[in-house]
Predict the 3D structure of the following.
Amino acid sequence: MRSYTVTCPDVFDAEDAAESLLEQLDNIELCANSCALVITEPESECLECLGILGKRRPEIPFIGATSLAQLSPKGYSRLGITMLVLTADDCWFGLAGSDRLGADGPEKIKRTYADALAQLGGRQPEGAFVFSSLTPSFTEQDKLALLDGLIGHKPIIGGVASDEFKFAEKKVFVSGRVLEDGYAVILVAGRFKPVVAVGGVPNKGLPRYRITESEGPVVKSIDGIPILDFLKKHEVNLDSSEGLLFAPFSAVQGDSDENGQPICRPLIAIDKEQGTALSYVNMPQGSMVSFQIISAEDLKRTVEDAARKVMDTIAASSDGYTYSSVFCVTCAGRHVVLAFEREYEADIAKKYFADSMQYAGFYAFTEIGPTRIDDDGYASNHSHNLSVIFCAF
């Protein structure tokens, strides 16, 4: 597989931006099968541009998501459009999407998977890329569990569309078609051997507590203490109008997965009337958690560790597979914590990947990626928060 990064750093006019991207695409030598992963700022001109692109270059179908910022060989950017174009003679791509995921979400995801699978000509997928939107009636954890079962526990990489924390401008799209409350998938068949590293929040050996009552992402009590009383006890500011994500940055660190990777969750909001706290994804009753304040230095260390792990794993491989691409999914919460050092993750990507691979990345409201991939392709897929994921392929 080969890849190319195509960018339009500023989109003032949809047609002009489309022409800029089309000119770059015209210089790419495509193989038999192609697709693209697309990241864009959440502006109407960008979405209109992608609609034009989908019509003008249908041989490069794409899925994508809005993001509060982007990573590419050009660095960190809050603006424009970034495309990671994938092309191969020995890989096949199936793309599909669904919108308005509500109570019928499971059936729509099954149909999306079937539509994408039908494009693979009878071949079985070796992995998938996915973009999703936060939906109130169908959690990201449940969506991932469903797709994981459908694909047979092959690697799944992606995340949840973001915006500048307005939660109203996030979008997912398939080849220019915008999906409201949507879900978009690329299934990859053929020679596809991803290497994935997850940089989570370091475990500082803090006390661990048990969730004694919860319902999905809603936490009601910890160690038998109502959650709001528990947070007050630990001096968490419950009066912040911006929620727990910002003041202070309070992470919930759950049980490690079977590979020892800590699974991190932020508490993003509180409901004083109901006496509950809300996370992005499920907080299972009976699971163990610890609370900690996250520092920029913690996050900077984990991003370099993850990038280095990817390159070390590639260097140690001996099966002749050529890695040409890196896709990065990082947490919108990390963007907040890094504050005036937000370019750091883009700088690390450039440091480790620019000499040998094309790459692109985005900031997600939830990150999706495996913490382990076995030699037979079995992947331990998880949804993450506060993490950075590098996937080389």
Observations:
- The radius of gyration is 20 Å.
- The chain is about 25% helix and 35% strand.
- The longest helix spans residues 296-316.
- Residues 307 and 349 are 7 Å apart (CA to CA).
